[in-house]
């Protein structure tokens, strides 16, 4: 990812060249997933979604979050209080834009998902807000 430090000590299970990623992702998906961009607030398809199911990485298909951990944080992006399991995502320090945040990446392909914030007083079991770009996700609804 351009301008970002590589994930130390970790090799993604899904490895593709940037040309392959560009061929598979549309320009907006590529900008967010591979260049650590951010979609504009309140524009993503999953911001208000209440459908039950599993949210997968849009780049590689890895299962990341369950809808039961999604909550309304009023921030403009889908928010979750926990990934499916701790090994589904990688966290790393992000010092871009003059601030210090914790970036969230897919553990399977190292694509950018969003950021996680702690200690904001959300009424969740973890007091964490995984603020994830809709464009980084694909929801697979539960079967009825």
TrEMBL record:
Reaction catalysed by this enzyme: L-methionyl-[protein] + [thioredoxin]-disulfide + H2O = L-methionyl-(R)-S-oxide-[protein] + [thioredoxin]-dithiol
Metal-binding recorded as keyword: yes
UniProt-recorded name of the protein: peptide-methionine (R)-S-oxide reductase
Gene3D superfamilies in UniProt: Peptide methionine sulfoxide reductase
SUPFAM superfamilies, sorted: Mss4-like (SSF51316)
EC number(s) on file: 1.8.4.12
Domain MsrB: 18-142
Alphabetized UniProt keyword annotations: Metal-binding, Oxidoreductase, Zinc
InterPro entries: Met_Sox_Rdtase_MsrB, Met_Sox_Rdtase_MsrB_dom, Mss4-like_sf
Any single GO CC term annotated in Swiss-Prot or TrEMBL for this entry: cytoplasm
Cofactor: Zn(2+)
Pfam families in the cross-refs: SelR
GO biological process: protein repair; response to oxidative stress
Any GO molecular function: peptide-methionine (R)-S-oxide reductase activity
Lineage of the species this protein comes from: Bacteria, Bacillati, Actinomycetota, Actinomycetes, Pseudonocardiales
Name of the top EC class for this enzyme: oxidoreductase
Organism of provenance: Actinokineospora fastidiosa
């Amino acid at each position: 990812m351009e301008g970002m430090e590589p994930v130390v000590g970790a090799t993604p299970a899904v490895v593709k060249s940037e040309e392959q990623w560009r061929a598979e992702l549309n320009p907006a998906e590529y900008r967010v997933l591979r260049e650590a961009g951010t979609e504009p607030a309140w524009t993503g398809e999953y911001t208000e979604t209440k459908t039950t199911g599993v949210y997968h990485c849009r780049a590689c298909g890895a299962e990341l979050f369950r809808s039961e951990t999604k909550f309304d944080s009023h921030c403009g992006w889908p928010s979750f209080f926990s990934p499916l399991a701790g090994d589904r995502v990688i966290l790393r320090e992000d010092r871009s834009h003059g601030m210090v945040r914790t970036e969230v990446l897919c553990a399977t392909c190292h694509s950018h998902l969003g950021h996680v914030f702690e200690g904001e007083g959300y009424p969740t079991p973890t007091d964490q807000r995984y603020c994830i770009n809709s464009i980084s996700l694909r929801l697979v609804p539960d079967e009825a």
